Amino acid sequence: MSASDTLRGLRPALIESRIRAFTGHGIHRTGWAGDDLTSAWLRDELRALGITAELERFDFPRVEYRTARLSWGDGRADGVPLYDGGFTDAAGIEGDLCAADEEDVFGKIVVDVGTLRGDVAKGGAAADTRYDDLAAAGALGLVLPSSDSDGAIVLRNAERIGRPFRLPVLQVATKDARPLLSTLLVGGEGVLTIDGERLRSRATNVVATLPGTDASARPIGVMTPKSGWFTCAAERGGGIAIWLALAEALAAMPDRRRTVQLVASGGHELSHLGLKDYLKRRPDAAAGPVAWLHLGASIGAREPRARFAAADDALGEIVERALTAAGVRDVEPLPIGQPGNGEAREIHAGGGRFVSFLGGHRFFHSPNDTVDQAVDAESVARWGGAALAIVQGMLDLDG
After folding, report:
1. pLDDT tens track of the chain, all 399 residues?
2. Are residues 256 and 387 in the same domain?
């Protein structure tokens, strides 16, 4: 089947319609109503294409909070707790305010003034060490101001959700915390309140299998995350639209030798808990397929920071050819064998081969990530054409 965007699922109008339907479900945080609605919608979309799809439930720690705020003098900044950070009681904790670069943070509430000066706070392993070090040094809490270019709050993924930090960490919009600079200069106290807890809850993955004609042939996998902090139009929408288009195209291939495993996973912002559960249920799911395609973040977004990853040179060559043929430009390749921080890293950890589309864009992890501000349906269609060519290349692989 041709990889051109004349395929029904890769028509820009249908892509935009599907992304608008996805964002119309609301906030997509794992286990929230919008996430559950998306699971049911994806299942029904696949069933309308003649594909049997099911919802698989998995347990996760659901963060519920009543107050997330820093108060000082006559100022106040409300925000969102780091989901893998600590909590206070309802009264909060009181202490002197200090900048993050001060030597003595014992008994103080630390403010990341670097972000107030225009730097971007980073997550990942460096953040793990930083938060633990601050707690070990006796800090009472940390305030992380971070915003997109329009001033809206930008949130960090909870990579340590399974082993949370002891330190309470409050994320706030930079503009709301900027008055703190003068308070830090003259000295002052504040009250940090993150009144909440983690509760055991359940969320869903959407899974489907398209049987091939040769049961002995190794399958391929096609996966996309479906959860995130806000409505995630560009962050998740492009991957979801392409995932549905590929499912339709693959189901229509009558002589397809390989079985195809389809997964739309929850728990993305919570250290990929949904995909981890999918793989735990199927011990050979990571390494068993001949390769996985991960449709990750910000595919076809406006003002993108686009990247791709490939497990080996053979898959990397398939990707390069497909992107060029589809007219996709300005994509940064990661070093061969490095999966990046998307769900492909779980496939890599399980010994599997992968291709991953991943990246960011102007409104990444922001409430401003909407269809009208962040999505380019024509670009998504081009990426979808490349994805179809990559899948065809995977179907034709030896082994």
Report:
1. 444 434 899 999 999 999 999 999 999 999 999 999 999 999 999 999 999 999 999 999 999 999 999 999 999 999 999 999 999 999 999 999 999 989 999 999 999 987 665 554 444 445 678 899 999 999 999 999 999 999 999 999 999 999 999 999 999 999 999 999 989 989 999 999 999 999 999 999 999 999 999 999 999 999 999 999 999 999 999 999 999 999 999 999 989 999 999 999 999 999 999 999 999 999 999 999 999 999 999 999 999 999 999 999 999 999 999 999 999 999 999 999 999 999 999 999 999 999 999 999 999 999 999 999 999 999 999 999 999 999 999 999 986
2. yes
Domain count, the chain: 2
- Please state whether beta strands 291-295 and 354-361 pair in parallel, antiparallel, or not at all (unpaired): parallel
In a domain, 78, yes or no: yes
Q: pTM higher than 0.85, yes or no? A: yes
Residue 2 in domain: no
Residues of the domain holding 257: 8-61+201-395
Are 152 and 277 part of one and the same domain?
no
Closest C-alpha among 213, 238, 206, 244 to residue 395:
213
Q: 74 and 24 in one domain?
A: no
Instruction: Say whether both 219 and 133 belong to one domain.
Output: no
Residues 111 and 44 occupy one common structural domain:
no
